[in-house]
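EI: anyone free to look at a 422-residue chain?
SC: sure, send it
EI:
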Amino acid sequence: MAIQKLLGRYSIGTGDRFAHQAKAQLQACIQALQADVEVTPVWNKSNREHLIIGSEPTSVRRAADAAVQSLGWKGAYFCDADHITLQTVDRFVDACDFYTIDVADAIGKPAASQDVAAFAARHANLIGEIALPGTEEKFFITAQTLRATAEKYLAAVQQAGSVYRHILAVKGEGNFLPEVSMDETDAAQSPVELLLILAAIADEGIPVQTIAPKFSGRFNKGVDYVGDVVQFEREFALDIAAIAYAVRHFGLPATLKLSVHSGSDKFSIYPAIHRTMQRLGAGVHLKTAGTTWLEELIGLAEAGGEALMLAKEIYREAFAHQAELCAPYATVIDIDPAYLPAPALVASWSSAQYTEALRHVQSAPGYNPSFRQLLHVGFKIAAKMGDRYLALLRDHEAIIARNVTENLFDRHIAPVFLGRAS
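SC: here you go
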């Protein structure tokens, strides 16, 4: 399949909850280009987020197109139907040209026994020792490994194939990029499992451009990685080696690369990602999602006055509705209630105190990861405020935009793609 627009070696998924920061986000990619590194922007927003905000996928497309035109961006860019399923994909087909096909819920569901047997027979040549490109390590695959992996993942990949073919029938070949996502599940996929998943994806005829496995360790929303960084780097390298093998032997696109979901703010693993990409000549898609919404709050708090009062009100309401806000994100947040400040205390804070608690600078004495995570999932509060919130975004656009661009470039793009310390 000849994709008309390529994602490029480096790309970044940028969430924009309220469709006001596309220019500020794109400015970060322009700064990367000025440093001689092209990072393709992909604006992503899930069906769940559209439902919470009350928006439509066309709003993401309009914001992206307007930013590109305003800033004169000449590179590729995409709009991502994030974490879609067969039940939710149709509302995205007019606006989007990147599709994150989420099949995590189907992991572990049984495929037909004859399909499992056929997969095992078709890939019996993988049994034994496999030398991996770019690494001295090897995979050892047994007949039992082959069958067990098929029993766990084949139904999920078949579901991805159904969604892909549904999109293909509407969009046409070459008019969109597919990603397969398996990250929102309990257990990480091993590099061997990833290799066999890619074999199944090739069998389904999906020209997958990015693959989002679940990595070991915790990828909580809006805060740093929790886990063994050395182990992550080894597994990340093996995943890249598995992709290189799959491209060579299964006929998958040469542009296929890893996608790191909940990738924002994972500062401790960014050097490992950069080193591994440089060593193996690989790329990555880093999905940053909701970090921009937090920069809006930081900008409002910096502005002071009515904007600071509203930022405090959003926290007060989020504190009062913790259970409701946290439930959809329970597997990707880790909030310690003991470290959540009382709303009455936050009401007395200065701009500097609020922003220090929220901004992800771990060396700052007032930084509070529980405070940050609660507000990360609290965008529903701002959505209910409607134009009251949006009007303040417009009134303080310059302050907010500065924070959004600095966060995306200095803390994310620079360490991952340029190898600079954040």
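EI: The mean pLDDT is 96.
SC: 👍
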